[in-house]
Specification:
26 helices, globular, mainly alpha, two-stranded parallel ribbon, 1% strand
Length: 544
């Protein structure tokens, strides 16, 4: 465990660190301690998963499988580009974006770690040593990520340009990693300078959600937006404002060495690709004391402004008259607003609900004029309902699941009102916006063609949701550990929910041929029955 390969490689550059005025021995001890703690944490997590699921420990390659898949797709893409600058621009852009997202989502806890401050700050240790150990700690993690994100692309570029391209490519990856880290750190520094740590936590959580959405469904849209026949012959054209775009800098050395480029801007790009990361790094070292002091803001919880929830409170008063239901509604809104781990699972599922009908529509009509409709395109909106079971399943879980003991100790038994308030919160906060966004896309595409059908689909969703809630829910809301949501779901319950959706979609088609407003009237009459009769009611264990 103590013989880390990264530390052995780092030892080769000991003289360089000492010339920078850094106590290498102390820095190495700090970095080694961090790596040991990380390795022990990973072993504990893997052993716990092994005990719970009976599976073997997750291998190093399996842990980074998604990164490897993306790296292979990126390598395949850039291999067929002829122009050296364009090839590296596409690679640098994709690599810069993906690495930045992963750095913020997965490695921010390393950049923003404050646990060691109480141990290191009282000691006679230079702040540069602490800062350098943190930078190297992050770069070691990023290097592991780069093996899978950039490794396949390096093989493709070596295949095109020869082995001389390998050391240049590796050096550029290190410079890009350093630049990404420094930009991220400066953004964090700027936020903490003017705001509290709560805003920074919210931004990081938002980036995590965006990354999960991108990995889940983004590639389906990206692959359809790329015209491979045109991109093979595209050539780079210089513009003066390109000097301020770091993504363009890293293609210049390849253009000079392997394509005979002699334009002056190529040499300026090459100098910028080296000077800017190094200069930013030296500035970061000078600001290290200021950075460490601002990080202490993260130890505060931040204050939540009640004014932010005006709409939420207004909707609660408008749609809920029962006091118990209203309390359950506000409780659910508070959890959905503050539970970062739960949001990280819910919002990617909701994004699938927005994109699935759009992708289905795009696939079916990709080569047709949208003005020529078959009359049943509105049925694709029922695909939005496919995410209802998945999202409602997640409402059982929370990162603060241990707090569910209050259900039992308080003697609370109004479970029907509790479930009604929870469902109202989920509907108003998640599902109605989801349907509105999807409907807006269809109105934009088809103008006013399916307005009546969209209104009926909105009514159908309000009737279907309590039915699906009754099928899916077999536990108290927010009462299960969030890690349990990764386990396999009850496939039978999911199929039953889809069957209910299919029945309503079939009724929509049949009654649409007669009069769509007959179906709308049936749905309006079914609304109180659905929400009052079907809503689940059960007793708590230990209560009478």
């Amino acid at each position: 465990m103590e013989n880390f390969l990264s530390l052995k490689i780092l030892d080769k550059f000991r003289g360089l660190f000492e010339k920078m005025g850094i106590d290498y021995k102390v820095m190495r001890i700090i970095l080694k301690t961090k790596l040991v703690l990380d390795s022990r944490s990973a072993l504990i997590i893997e052993n716990q998963k092994k005990k719970e699921s009976g599976e073997e420990s997750i291998s190093f390659i399996r842990r980074y499988l998604l990164h490897l898949i993306f790296g292979v797709l990126l390598a395949f893409f850039i291999y067929f580009i002829k122009d050296e600058m364009i090839r590296m621009i596409y690679f640098s852009g994709a690599f810069f974006f993906m690495t930045s997202m992963y750095l913020i989502s997965d490695f921010s806890y390393v950049i923003l770690d404050t646990k060691d401050k109480k141990i290191l700050l009282p000691k006679p240790i230079d702040s540069k040593v602490i800062t350098m150990s943190k930078v190297l700690h992050v770069l070691i993690y990023m290097f592991r990520l780069n093996l899978f994100l950039a490794g396949p692309s390096m093989l493709a570029i070596v295949r095109l340009n020869g082995f001389l391209a390998a050391p240049i490519f590796i050096l550029e990856i290190l410079l890009i990693d350093l630049l990404i880290f420094l930009i991220t750190a400066f953004i964090y520094l700027l936020i903490l300078r003017f705001f509290d740590g709560e805003l920074l936590r919210n931004i990081i959580n938002l980036i995590q959600i965006m990354l999960t959405v991108l990995v889940t469904v983004g590639y389906q849209i990206a692959m359809r937006m790329i015209d491979f026949t045109e991109i093979r012959n595209i050539a780079y054209r210089f513009e003066p404002h390109n000097y301020f775009n770091p993504i363009l800098w890293f293609g210049a050395p390849f253009e000079i060495l392997f394509n005979g480029g002699r334009e002056s801007y190529l040499y300026v790009f090459t100098l910028l690709s080296v000077i800017v990361p190094v200069a930013c790094f030296l500035l970061y070292l000078r600001l290290s004391k200021r950075m460490e002091s601002l990080l202490l803001k993260l130890e505060g919880e931040g204050k939540e402004r009640r004014s932010r929830h005006i709409i939420e409170n207004l909707l609660g008063k408008l749609f809920i008259r029962n006091n118990i239901k209203r309390q359950a509604y506000h409780f659910s809104c508070a959890v959905l607003r503050s539970d970062r781990s739960l949001k990280l699972k819910i919002y990617p599922a909701l994004s699938v609900g927005i994109l699935l009908p759009v992708i289905m529509l795009f696939n079916m009509r990709m080569r047709m004029d949208y003005d020529t409709t078959g009359g049943y395109e509105y049925m694709y909106l029922y695909f939005v309902f496919m995410v209802f079971p998945s999202v409602l399943e997640l409402i059982k879980y929370s990162s603060a699941w241990k707090g569910s003991y209050v259900y039992y100790t308080s003697g609370f038994q109004h479970t029907r009102e509790l479930n009604s308030g929870i469902l109202t919160s989920v509907t108003l906060r998640l599902f109605i916006p989801l349907l509105l966004v999807s409907s807006a896309i269809y109105i934009f595409v088809f103008k006013n063609l399916f307005i009546n059908d969209i209104i009926v689909i909105m009514l159908a969703s309000l009737v279907i949701l309590p039915v699906i809630y009754r099928i899916i829910f077999d536990a108290l809301p927010f009462s299960r550990e969030i890690d349990g949501s990764n386990q396999s779901k009850d496939f039978g319950r999911y199929i039953a929910s889809l069957t209910v959706t299919g029945v309503f979609a079939l009724l929509h088609i049949l009654l649409n041929k007669i009069n769509i407003w007959i179906y709308a009237g049936i749905l309006i009459a079914a609304l109180p029955v659905s929400h009052m009769v079907i809503m689940p009611k059960y007793n708590f264990k230990g209560t009478k």
